[in-house]
Amino acid sequence: MTRVCVVGAGVIGSLYAGHLAQVGEVSVLTRREGHAEALNAEGLHVSGKSERQAAVSATRDPAALPDVDLCIVATKATHLEAAAQALEGRLPGATIMTVQNGLGAEEIVRAHGDWPLISAVTFMSGTKHADTHVEYILDTETWLGPYESTPRESVDETAQLLASSGLKARAFDNLRPAQWSKLIFNATVNSVAALTGLPHDRHFAETARPDDLGRVVRELMEEGTRVAAAAAIELHEDPWDMNIHATQHGSAHYPSMLEDVQVRRPTEIDLITGSLVREADRLGVDVPQHRALYALVKGIEESW
Amino acid sequence: MRVCVVGCGAVGSLFAAHLAQLEEVEVWAYDLARDHVEAINRDGLRLSGVGELVGRMTATSEAAEIPRCDYGIVAVKSMHTDAALAATAGVFDDESAVCSVQNGIGNEETVAEHVRFVIRGTTFPAGHLIAPGQVGWDTKGDSWIGPFEPSGTPMGKVEGLAELVTRAGMPTHALADARSAQWTKAIFNAATNPVGALTGLAHGEVCDFEPTRRLVTQLCDEGKAVVAALAIELDHDPEEMVDHAARVAHDHKASMTQDVEARRQTEIDFLNGAIVERGEEAGVPAPLNRTMWALVKALEDSWALA
Q1: Within this chain, do residues A136 and A273 fall inside the same structural domain, yes or no?
Q2: Which of A94, A181, B47, B294 is the most buried (most CB within 10 A)?
């Protein structure tokens, strides 16, 4: 049986852990003692798109983690450095998969060990109702690709493992084009949602009137696309098409940055919009709209 | 001499309470908030903050109760100008002059649809409502007024109002062309108000935080380019106004920030919206002003969800 460790049991980490426990032995590294205790006592309940009651072994002590074959680091990007530090010198036989928003998660993990790494982005979403209960809302794919010299077979195996647990997964030879599509999409949708209080709904696709929000969204996505072009990345999917498609869903998705702002939690703006702006700087591409939204979201954090 | 203040919110209250200090002026305050009207009639209109003042006047929500007035001072939110003037038009005759001291661009055109002589005005003082009948006076400052060009308002009427308001304690300058002052303030407001409204930061905090302060400069620059294309010369650099306001009104939350916190419709159409539209007519794009416009409109829309 495959042994899997999930680091960080927020929405995404809980969705992986809750599903993978059907097909493997799952351990979970949490940040809070109470969270680990609750998971050990009650297990993990997944509702919504799938119904699962999973037994997991949880701890907040990295030294207590068992050896595993696969480790999924699903912390927020803001906690990634601390998580990678906690794993340093541990999990010798593991392949580590990162699913953080933005760019550069793999480099952060690499700085703490020489595990084979898998790059991943996920489009799943859900809502955490309790430490031991997550609702699976959007059952969209996780995309995986090799990082550095990780063999493609290892990526395929991981994708198959996810699929066998009931999640949707797709393996790529090169994840960069998909990572960039998602980065541009996320940098735009998250910051606009955080600033307007709107979930990702029809407003994001409306462009008829001069003050329609879709015009701003399109401009932001065009800026991001110019950065990708300067980085010689051919996007996997056009972010504006992704936006149109996503806003046609029945229920509007609440981007995580909107939730962060509503509960006054530090956002991932530095890792999402920030990584796009840093790339733009490096490549000499002008991104005034992204800079403006970056300043405004930082301003919200400043107001707390 | 009778003056009717149309809209007795923060700014209208500053004018009304000051004018009420003059013995020869009879002030009427028109406002739709009945608790505010009752408090003013009972206890007077009380200003506190950078100055203390109580103005005695008659307040009403019924325009028909107001006698003919020599001057009007319009201080309603821009989106309420048409309704407020439609209600009070009978207060003014062909000798009256009505002055807008509102934020933004386009209010005088609306006032002129209801009265003969219109005065274009811009005011710097600011405040906030504390309770019915009580207004916090956050900032002192000058006002600039001039004839609204198409209505041919005689300069004498402009000077008369400037003299009156100045003597009441609010320094007011009569100008042959008040567009410069108005655009300076509009660019200032368009550059600072949405940044405050979207972040929740007070004006001084917006200026202390480097990323937002830089955004303010970019928004000012777009506004300045639009005004240059319209061949209007600014009387001050809006940037100087930004820094000045950070010193004298550091903790003041812009009226748009107050609106957003109270979930009231904002004046964004008359600020950033006007800059974008006038810019488009003149062939000058204002992309960041458009972004502020769309973001604040979307924020207003989000209140319908909850």
Answers
A1: no
A2: B294
